[in-house]
Amino acid sequence: MPDLRAPRGMHDLLPEDEALWRFVRDTAERVARLFDYRLISTPIVEDSHVFLRTVGDESDIVSKEMYLFDDRGGDHLALRPEGTAAVARAYLEHGMASRPQPVRLCYFGPMFRYDRPQAGRYRQLWQFGVECIGDASPSADVEVIELQRTLYEELGLGDLKLRINSIGTAETRRRYVEALRSHLEPHVATLSRDSQRRFETNVLRILDSKEDAEHPALQSVPSILDYLDEGDEAHFTEVRALLDTLHVTYEVDPRIVRGLDYYARTVWEFEPAGAGGQSTVGAGGRYDGLIELLGGPHTPGVGFATGIERIMLNLKDRPTAVEAPRVDLYVAPLGEAVNGAAMHAARRARAAGFAVRAGFPGRGMRAHFRAAESANARFIAIVGENEATRDVVQLKPLDVTDAEQREVAFDHLAEALR
RNA sequence: GUGGGCGUCGCCUAGCGGUUAAGGCGCCAGGUUGUGGCCCUGGAGACCGAGGGUUCAAAUCCCUCCGCCCACCCCA
User: Fold this and answer.
1) How does DSSP assign A264-303, residue by residue?
2) Residue A127 belongs to a domain
3) ipTM of the predicted structure?
4) Which residues of A spanning 22-81 put their CB closer than 7 angstroms to strand B?
5) At the N or C end, where does chain A have fewer CB atoms within 10 A?
6) Are A307 and A340 in the same domain?
7) Residues A242, A369 within the same domain
8) Is the CB of A367 under 7 A from strand B?
9) What's the domain count of chain A?
């Protein structure tokens, strides 16, 4: 057992996982393009205030999960725990408010949260996310949900369940939190310790406690939907109407509250049918107050983020057609003396766009064939003394049994590989 | 942060007080002195997670630590 390992909760992505990973990434970028969302890459590190100001002091992300450090110049930096605040910062910094609104952006990259790892939860996690900034209409919410739904469908995860809710504006939540507090107050003593703590810090969080889910006080809890104001109500109604028109199936779940403070109005989650554990594959919401928290003008926005590892987790349970990578040609030099000639042959093939695995001298014929086999090569080119002096190779197809082998000059190698 | 399970070659697993620590996959080589996939033979590869203790004897029992996994919390 080596004494140096990858940091806790962080993982190496091995070549054999690459194909599936690339499939997910390519699909995400392709679907984003279908909706005209453009890729933006922000630094992995931000001024810590980008998150401290926006995410919410009571959130676990800020209170215990951030990787914080000071650099040599004394700047307070954070490894980004999520993408939205960083994208919003870039929107502001680059004056994107003066572009045609809304601005449609997407990102793909690693996020960092110092948390105890478990199934589907990592300290370095990859997210794909989408942000539609600068438009307050329900159409924007639905466009983002539709993009996310399309993505899952294209990935083969079309059976994920969508649950949506509206948590109103900050004012709505103030009134609701008050009602929630007075509803729960008489029962505090009988709630779990965690919920008792949350009663003081963040009452909304009690709603998604697994421990107290069966508690009578929670069964009879008031619904936030009854506290929406007229504008919230109209917005949510329109979102649902549009989803219905598109035949998107969803379930309204008044228990959904997002972990981050900047959310407003529409919030949603996608999870597998047999939910449990760290099951949420992707979640999103509207964040009309976020850019103000960063010191900008009031700017509406809506987006989602989805966890790549969680997508992979769900993908691994089902048959996916991801073809194994293969090589066009394996070049087998028989001895040191012909190594240069073999390298020339390889260069010719590569120049024509063929993938070539170079065998190195010092191995026997059988070893070369086995290596070519394991590279899943279409052809093997044998270069011995006899061939090297005449600039030719013995070329043999490997896919068929008892294939005919023929002599091919370097000059004709590319066409022979076609 | 809390609770539970587990750590034996690169991977999977056997062994559960006395074995040169076993097998499969993979890797390397030979059988075929320049021709693959199958088969056969051989080889390399493990201070049995670390440290301490019990014992004539510890991979096996006990303690501590570390790591991984799972659940809670929280979240993607």
Assistant:
1) EEEEEEEE-SS--SS---EEEEE-TTHHHHTTS----EEE
2) yes
3) 0.85
4) 59-61, 65
5) N
6) no
7) no
8) yes
9) 2
